[in-house]
Structures are given as structure tokens and as C-alpha cells.
């Protein structure tokens, strides 16, 4: 007799419960802000990717409402049939200018962008070399290709050189890396990685989900941070859902990249275009970050303060270089218990364990934003001190 659906669901869910890995998302009962409400508790929010405070920003909401009223609730079709509105093309021009690239194309999410771009560019006979800690969307995107796949040690240009030297090809060679790694908060040494890639004639592909809006002048991203903007052998992809406060993904690079993706990227070809309100929000976000430098200044001032105070308390922040600030607890039980206790103290910060992060490196990942005040951060630090001492993570 065949396995029933109920049996499969029960087996898988039981395994997750028994291993302590079953996810039950917390529900926000107020807008995504530096302070919000979770499970009936008013909290300081350290769990979101809302780096610049754009998710509930009045100017961005106003532009979204304007585009909604002018252009309607939805696009009504995929981009290649009847779903490309003038506002879509205008925003992509704005994005390419912001990124200093020859072209840009917006897709439905950062995850599908990696599937669409990697699936379009990589063919049999190509070689792609990926950082061992790259995001799951990159891993899944590469699985869909028939290119030869190799791994190099995390952020290690010397190991990248070794792998490329051992894997020559007549096809395309590509090096793939996150710009900022989402679990550890470290920055890829992109200048060194690009130099190695160029030595072997390889293109460099940078997923800048957590670098765009955070690094580089006016938030232009990791590529700009390392002075590599405008390079035709560098492809930038990322999300529009983190620093930009809305939703979507983008690919920016060579002037011809956009046209090929329009014709070949399956997520673009088979998904309805972004709603007008989302486009309006993104237009406003790009304008605002360029007009108001205080946003990034506050983001980095808050980041430096929070990291320094955690270190003073005795916490290990794992060498993070960005607003992503992990606090190491080691075993998942400790990280999850700390997360529960922090919530009871009024701090929303989520524990992460295997398989999201390696075994033995369970942590709470905190993200500081431009919207947090010092009072918010001091409140969170006080809670961290009490919980850390209670669990024996820091000294009494």
C-alpha cells in the first residue's frame, strides 16, 4: 500500500518536533518598526531586516498609496504579455543609475532572482565556483543548472584561486558570493575575489541582499563599497525587501544582461509583475536614501554602539562587520531558551540553530536599524545582560 499524505506529514513534523527544529513563526500585531508588538508583548524589535526603517516610513507609504490610486491594485499579467507598466521600466532605469550599471531588471523576489539569473546564464560546460556559506537561494539556483559546480572555502581568495586553477573550461566561468553573509554579518573580500576571478577570465556574481542599502555611498552596496561599480564582469543581484522595505529582487550589470533575462529567466517569464504600490514604495525608498544621508549614519552609529556594548558585557558577536550582529550561544537549546527569555523581557530576537547555521554555532541574530534609539538599544542590552548571566553565557 502506498504511503498516505497524512503519514508523510506526521512523520516529517514529528521529526522536526523531536529535534527541536519545528518552526512556529511569531506574529507581529503592529507595524514593522524598531518597537512593535509580538504575541501580546510590546518589544524592542531586533529581528527584522528593516535596516533603514522604510517598512513603515510615512513618505514611502504615501508614495505607495499614490501609485495604488493612479495605477491600480495589480499589474494584471506577466511582464512579457501585458504586465509591464511604464512605472516598472522607470524604476528599473532609476535602479541601474543608482547601482552604476548598464542595465537592471526587477523580479518577484531575491530568491527567484537567483534561480532566474543563474539558470539563464549557466549552461553545460560552464564552471561555477561558490562560497561554502552562500545563501540557500544561491544553492538552490545552482542546483537547477547543468554547469559544473565547485565550492571554495568561505571568503578565501587563495582557495578560490586553487579551485579555478584546477577547473578550466571553454565555457563561462563564474564566481558566486554573498556580499554580506546573512548569518555571520561578515563582508566578502570582494576586491580580492574579483582580482582572482579576473586572473582566470571569470565573471563575479554578487548577491547583495544584505549589502544594498547598507554599504557603499548612499547604500549602493558591496560592489560600490569596494570601488568596483561599473565593471561589466561583475553582476549584482539582491532583494528589495530588506533595506528598501518592500518586496522583490533585482539583477543589475552588463547592458545586455537585462534583455537576456527578459527572454530567458523563468521566474520573470511566468510570474505576474509587481503591484504598483510596491513600485511606488521602491521609487520613494531609492530617492530617500540618496537625499537623506542621516539614515545610513544612524544605522552605522547604532551598529557600532550595540556591538561595543555587547562585547563589553562579554558576548561573542562572531566577528560581525555589519548591522547583522549574531550573539553566540553554541547549542540550539541555549539559543532558543535565550530567545524566549528575551521576549519575556520585551526584546524580540530570534534564536537560530542547525540546519540554518552549523552545529555548535547556534546563535541569536540581531539586526540594528536606523530607527532604533539609544534608549531602545540600552533596553535590549539590559535584557541581554540579565539573560546572559542567568544562562551562564557571560559572567555574573
TrEMBL record:
<comment type="similarity">
    <text>Belongs to the class-II pyridoxal-phosphate-dependent aminotransferase family.</text>
</comment>
<dbReference type="GO" id="GO:0008890">
    <property type="term" value="F:glycine C-acetyltransferase activity"/>
</dbReference>
<dbReference type="InterPro" id="IPR015424">
    <property type="entry name" value="PyrdxlP-dep_Trfase"/>
</dbReference>
<keyword id="KW-0808">Transferase</keyword>
<dbReference type="InterPro" id="IPR004839">
    <property type="entry name" value="Aminotransferase_I/II_large"/>
</dbReference>
<feature type="domain" description="Aminotransferase class I/classII large">
    <location>
        <begin position="42"/>
        <end position="381"/>
    </location>
</feature>
<comment type="subunit">
    <text>Homodimer.</text>
</comment>
<dbReference type="InterPro" id="IPR015422">
    <property type="entry name" value="PyrdxlP-dep_Trfase_small"/>
</dbReference>
<keyword id="KW-0012">Acyltransferase</keyword>
<dbReference type="InterPro" id="IPR015421">
    <property type="entry name" value="PyrdxlP-dep_Trfase_major"/>
</dbReference>
<dbReference type="InterPro" id="IPR050087">
    <property type="entry name" value="AON_synthase_class-II"/>
</dbReference>
<dbReference type="InterPro" id="IPR001917">
    <property type="entry name" value="Aminotrans_II_pyridoxalP_BS"/>
</dbReference>
<protein>
    <submittedName>
        <fullName>Glycine C-acetyltransferase</fullName>
        <ecNumber>2.3.1.29</ecNumber>
    </submittedName>
</protein>
<dbReference type="InterPro" id="IPR010962">
    <property type="entry name" value="AONS_Archaea/Firmicutes"/>
</dbReference>
<keyword id="KW-0663">Pyridoxal phosphate</keyword>
<dbReference type="Pfam" id="PF00155">
    <property type="entry name" value="Aminotran_1_2"/>
</dbReference>
Amino acid at each position: 500500500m502506498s504511503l498516505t499524505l497524512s503519514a508523510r506529514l506526521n512523520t516529517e513534523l514529528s521529526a522536526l518536533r523531536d529535534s527541536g527544529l519545528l518552526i512556529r513563526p511569531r506574529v507581529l500585531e503592529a507595524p514593522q518598526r524598531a518597537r512593535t508588538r509580538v504575541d501580546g508583548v510590546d518589544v524592542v524589535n531586533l529581528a527584522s531586516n528593516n535596516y533603514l526603517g522604510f517598512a513603515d516610513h510615512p513618505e514611502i507609504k504615501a508614495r505607495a498609496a499614490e501609485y495604488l490610486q493612479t495605477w491600480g491594485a495589480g499589474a494584471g499579467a506577466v511582464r512579457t504579455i501585458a504586465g509591464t507598466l511604464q512605472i516598472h521600466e522607470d524604476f528599473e532605469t532609476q535602479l541601474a543609475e543608482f547601482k552604476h550599471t548598464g542595465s537592471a531588471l526587477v523580479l518577484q523576489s531575491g530568491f527567484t532572482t537567483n534561480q532566474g539569473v543563474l539558470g539563464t546564464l549557466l549552461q553545460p560546460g560552464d564552471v561555477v565556483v561558490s562560497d561554502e556559506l552562500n545563501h540557500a537561494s544561491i544553492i538552490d539556483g545552482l542546483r537547477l543548472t547543468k554547469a559544473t559546480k565547485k565550492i571554495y572555502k568561505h571568503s578565501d581568495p587563495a582557495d578560490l584561486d586553487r579551485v579555478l586553477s584546477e577547473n578550466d573550461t571553454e565555457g563561462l566561468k563564474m564566481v558566486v558570493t554573498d556580499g554580506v553573509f546573512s548569518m555571520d554579518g561578515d563582508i566578502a573580500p570582494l576586491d580580492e575575489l574579483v582580482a582572482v576571478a579576473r586572473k582566470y577570465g571569470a565573471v563575479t556574481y554578487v548577491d547583495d541582499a544584505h549589502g544594498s542599502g547598507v554599504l557603499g555611498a548612499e547604500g549602493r552596496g558591496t560592489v560600490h563599497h569596494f570601488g568596483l561599480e561599473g565593471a561589466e564582469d561583475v553582476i549584482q543581484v539582491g532583494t528589495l525587501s530588506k533595506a528598501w522595505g518592500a518586496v522583490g529582487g533585482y539583477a543589475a550589470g552588463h547592458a545586455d544582461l537585462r534583455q537576456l533575462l527578459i527572454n530567458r529567466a523563468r521566474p520573470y517569464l511566468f510570474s505576474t509583475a509587481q503591484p504598483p504600490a510596491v513600485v511606488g514604495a521602491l521609487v520613494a525608498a531609492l530617492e530617500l536614501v540618496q537625499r537623506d544621508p542621516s539614515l545610513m549614519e544612524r544605522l552605522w552609529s547604532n551598529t557600532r554602539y550595540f556591538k561595543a556594548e555587547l562585547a563589553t558585557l562579554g558576548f561573542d558577536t562572531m566577528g560581525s562587520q555589519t548591522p547583522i550582529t549574531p550573539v553566540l550561544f553554541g547549542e540550539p537549546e541555549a539559543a532558543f531558551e535565550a530567545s524566549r527569555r528575551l521576549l519575556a523581557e520585551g526584546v524580540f530576537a530570534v534564536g537560530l540553530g542547525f540546519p540554518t547555521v552549523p552545529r555548535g554555532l547556534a546563535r541569536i541574530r540581531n539586526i540594528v536599524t536606523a530607527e532604533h534609539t539609544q534608549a531602545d538599544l540600552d533596553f535590549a542590552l539590559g535584557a541581554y545582560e540579565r539573560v546572559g548571566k542567568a544562562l551562564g553565557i557571560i559572567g555574573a
